[in-house]
């Protein structure tokens, strides 16, 4: 065997032997050969079949070590992974995989999902994250709103194409649970000066910065995959966690029975989530089909949820900036089912799309809320709604709560302009008639009490048991802010 092949084989064996469920490192910095995002088959160059790593595929034996082996191989040889949809794979050991370059996993047969069973043993059972870089510095000069260049104390370890994160200690003005912050991409580095791909969305003084860090360029592509949580009780689980990646694509992925959230995305850049199905993310107070926690440019379109508390939620957390410049388009949420506590989901609370205080410049367009207690929940800055639909289908005849019956006998908009702007389906207009001691409100749109300084053209109509907020014609999402 030629020496080069011996060395490559030895290197792969060592990588597979030492790989654990907590695995990280650096890798290829370019896309997979021949990878374009859809429609490719195992016959094309750039793919390897999971069967080569001899997983059990019986849904009973833990195949987590085999998947780690396969991912290490794919990373080394710059190929994607094809999975046989005729078999089922148990990932009994939670996986947290940090990487650079591209990870691509898809079914070997298009539109036939390859099924992975996941445990409910901890909150995060399958996560993919960009490998952290070595940059950990602060500002040498203040940043003004709209700046595309920033000056750092040090740029050691920072490379063109990295995701750069600026974290502040100062609260974002819309919500105290969110800190100011930036997620951006490095276009050039000259000495201490860094040129960014997008203008900064806030201003910062030097003393408020907690840290400026970086993540290596990493892309995740999942297609025609099913993730199914094997529930053993009332346990909070997130089915899929994606952190700090760039240009990722999640397409035709089904995630079932992940109680806390089907999927959560932390600080990602340019992420497409399309044609996915989310079922039974039903934890009271949580329960997200898709949750974005900070980041830039999420494109969430043509997804469906069943029995989830929320299909989509744009927000942030206490350590990073808000979710910005993102959209939810043509998604459909069916808000029926039971919560993790066994209560009726509609009566308790279900939504289609929500924006929290940590959200800015979000477009919510042509989405449909079916049998949701609340169509849309809005907080944040720069939220635009356009041509969304709210339906209460005829087959809901009654809802049970505390032994009493709530009958739905019709909801009718107060005036024709409201019907036109809301695009309520005429045959599904209903009015809620309640027989409970404590009325349950059916809300078309819910505006929380937190400030909404930039929500577009709002007209509100409120009655005793029905709340409506009517939005006029679409206001285009701004592509960048000016100082």
Ordered list of secondary-structure elements with their pairings:
Blueprint lengths: L2 H16 L3 E2 L23 E3 L8 E5 L1 H14 L2 E4 L4 E3 L4 E5 L1 E7 L6 E5 L7 E5 L1 E6 L11 E3 L11 E10 L2 E16 L2 E4 L12 E7 L2 E12 L8 E6 L2 E11 L4 E14 L2 E3 L8 E14 L2 E3 L3 E6 L7 E7 L2 E3 L10 H4 L4 E3 L3 E7 L2 E3 L3 E5 L2 E6 L2 E3 L6 E4 L2 E7 L5 H7 L8 E3 L8 E6 L10 E5 L3 E6 L12
Parallel strand pairs: 1-6, 2-4, 3-5, 4-7, 5-8, 6-9, 7-16, 8-16, 9-17, 16-18, 17-19, 18-19, 18-20, 19-21, 20-22, 21-23, 21-24, 22-25, 23-26, 24-27, 25-28, 26-29, 27-30, 28-31, 29-35, 35-37
Antiparallel strand pairs: 10-15, 11-14, 12-13, 12-15, 13-14, 32-33, 33-34, 36-37
Helix pairs in contact: 1-2
Q: Tell the overall outline.
A: globular
In percent, how much strand structure appears in the residues? over 45%
Total number of beta strands: 37
The largest sheet is: 28 strands, mixed
Mean pLDDT across every amino acid position:
77
Rg from Cα: 24 Å
Low-confidence spans: pLDDT under 50, at least 5 residues?
Answer: 3-45, 394-483
Structural class: mainly beta
Count the helices. How many? 4
Tell me the span between the first and last alpha carbons.
63 Å
* Helix fraction bin: under 10%
